[in-house]
Amino acid sequence: MAKNDSGNWEKSPFIICFGEMLIDFVPTVSGVSLAEATAFKKAAGGAPANVAVGIARLGGSSAFIGKVGDDEFGHMLSNILKINNVDYSGVCFDTGARTALAFVTLRADGEREFMFYRNPSADMLLKESELDFHLIKKGSIFHYGSISLIEEPCRSTHLAALNFAKKEGLILSYDPNLRLPLWPSADAAREGIKSIWEYADVIKVSEEEISFLTGDEDPYSDEVVYNKLFHDNLKLLVVTEGEKGCRYYTKKFHGRVGGFIVNAVDTTGAGDSFVSGLLLHLASNLDLYKDEKKLKEALVFANACGAITVTERGAIPSLPTKEAVLDFIPKGNEQPHSLCLIS
Q1: Helix axes 270-284, 292-309, angle to 10 degrees
Q2: Which end of the chain has the lower number of beta carbons within 10 A, N or C?
Q3: Rounded to an integer, what distance in angstroms lies between the CA atom of residue 126 and that of residue 4?
Q4: Rounded to an integer, what distance in angstroms lies between the CA atom of residue 277 and that of residue 284?
Q5: What does the pLDDT look like over 139-162, one tens digit per residue?
Q6: How far is CA 304 from the centre of its chain?
Q7: pLDDT band, residue 163 (cuts 50/70/90)
Q8: Cα first-last separation, the chain
Q9: Residues 312, 265 contacting (CB under 8 angstroms)
Q10: Is 317 exposed, middle or buried (0-12, 13-18, 19+ CB in 10 A)?
């Protein structure tokens, strides 16, 4: 905690990430089905955990709240948080359920499909009584996705954490991170994702998610974004557009920031890396969405984070340091050309 100019105590720039952490198994060769793959690389993953590690790698301060199995994979994941300087005091271990696994099929273009093993996995069983509300209270931003809304008791736990963070004045950051195979149906996914939509102060979505949430309306239309997705409580909505870069929307302005041309190997974790870069800047300037110039600078940085991440396999292993990002961005504040495959 630190004092502001008026002598009042303010929250430190500490970002709390809530949700799932799991093991991704990624084929060592792209463009093959899971059945055809002969070898896999084991990598830590789970969108909220990716964001927490991404922020810490970039020099920020983050914590992760979630549940893993009391098994070798669960303790491996907890240790990964520890060695990456993420506060893992909010991690619980379940003795009766395993850590979630995901097998990721990589197409030749680096895009991916998922096969999940969660019946149920430990992350789905986090209870409200296991939440560390004191840890949440320390934060300035509370970041989350939608996967933790699929099953009880985690859904009720998520809502309890969300309401507490909102009451405590944290900025609420939402990345729906659509994973249709995990939901009972497409309608259930749409309803679940939208059920907490109006809580958020900051939302990051992909083109695919816009189409899904709006009933296949034009994901490139500013009118669709403002009329169908923007809401009165929202401060900033960002749309990632693959190779085209990203768009940003606030109540007063909107625009586009280009990205970077890279050789995409695996897009797993690229959107989470993007979010890490954006939240790092937001944590140090909670009014970032009011200054278009500074917002665009933050989005160039976020685009670079995502672009670097797609050049290696796996999510957490590919997340960049701040130094790597600054070296990657062209000197002289040139606007980059295209962002490769962030979703």
Answers
A1: 150
A2: N
A3: 36
A4: 12
A5: 999 999 999 999 999 999 999 999
A6: 15
A7: very high
A8: 34
A9: yes
A10: buried
